[in-house]
Amino acid sequence: MANEPSQDDYVPALRYRWLTPFYDAIVGTTTRERTFKYALISQANIRPKQRVLDLACGTGTLSVWIKSAHPLAEIVGIDGDPEILSFAANKAARAGVSIEFRTAMSYDLPYPDSSFDRVVSSLFFHHLTWDNKIKTAREVNRVLKPGGQFHVADWGKADNIVMRALFLFVQLLDGFKNTQDNVAGKLVDVFEQAELTDVKTHRTISTMFGTMVLYSAARPE
Ligand SMILES: C[S@@+](CC[C@H](N)C(=O)[O-])C[C@H]1O[C@@H](n2cnc3c(N)ncnc32)[C@H](O)[C@@H]1O
Predict the structure, then answer these.
(1) Which of 68, 135, 168, 200 has the greatest number of beta carbons closer than 10 A?
(2) Which residues are 150's β-sheet partners?
(3) Residue 25 to residue 86: CA distance in whole angstroms
(4) String of b and e for 124-141 (b: at least 16 CB within 10 Å)?
(5) Structure confidence at residue 48 (pLDDT)
(6) What is the best residue among 27, 111, 124 to mutate for testing ligand 1's pocket, by most ligand atoms within 8 Å of CB?
(7) Strands (DSSP E) along 35-194, which ranges?
(8) Residue 28 has pLDDT above 90, yes or no
(9) CA of 70 to the centre of ligand 1 (A)
(10) Is the pLDDT reported for residue 128 higher than 50?
């Protein structure tokens, strides 16, 4: 039994796979999804022909919105859950956009060094153990081109006591251990420990489940 992965090692989209069909409806109505995902897209400042990786893309909403906004960019979405990627592929087909979706783990990306101009990620880091957060950020650093940028939206330090209380619902669902680093404001430390540079916190957005924070970092030139 020695190397059995713990429940904290892989947390599906809403913790239980049977909830995946309800993911878009729940996230769409509770997280101000349009506001924070379009803010992330704008922050990422994507240019034509750039290669963009959506890390842990889930049902593919962010990937589809990026491709629709930047049709000349190349978008790749990875996720560790092949089932959720079938939702993403259907969504891209319905939107009439071409996106490559691939099953992969965030801390072992199947891409050579310097493959992407941008890596984006939303609602993801709170799913990872501390060690996997660091490993994942190191992988992002590796697959980014020198000077390439990493843009992240995820739960962060609560703006006030109400936001902190609401975040308890996320912690009850996704688990306290992995989400605690986020609400303690430690994602900045994760990115710095992975030797990403120019780490910035851009804005916070209040939602029904707590404070969403937008960050950026870059691979050194
Ligand atoms: C809350 S969902 C977020 C999905 C999407 N990014 C969004 O904004 O809606 C978290 C996703 O992370 C994926 N995931 C969890 N651990 C992973 C890992 N280590 N590598 C890749 N994907 C992972 C889950 O399968 C799930 O789709």
Answers:
(1) 135
(2) 119, 217
(3) 17
(4) bbbbbbbebbbbbbbbbb
(5) 97
(6) 124
(7) 51-55, 74-79, 100-103, 116-122, 144-155
(8) no
(9) 23
(10) yes
Q: Which of 136, 104, 137 is nearest to 219 (CA)?
A: 137
CA gap 116, 140 in Å, rounded: 9
Amino acid at 188: V
pLDDT at 19: 67
Query: Which token pair is 6?
Result: 């713990």
User: Which ligand 1 atom is at minimum distance from the Cα of 10?
Assistant: 16
Q: Whose CA is nearest to atom 12 of ligand 1?
A: 56
Amino acid at site 178 = N
State how far the alpha carbon of 145 is from the alpha carbons of 38, 80, 112, in Å: 24, 23, 10
User: DSSP assignment, residue 109?
Assistant: -
Query: By three-state DSSP, how is residue 200 classified?
Result: strand
CA of 34 from ligand 1 middle (Å) equals 18
Closest to 102 measured CA to CA, from 86, 124, 118: 86
Residue 18 has pLDDT above 70, yes or no: no
Q: Which atom of ligand 1 is nearest to the CA of 57?
A: 6
| Res. 78 pLDDT band, cuts 50 70 90 | very high
DSSP state of 176: H
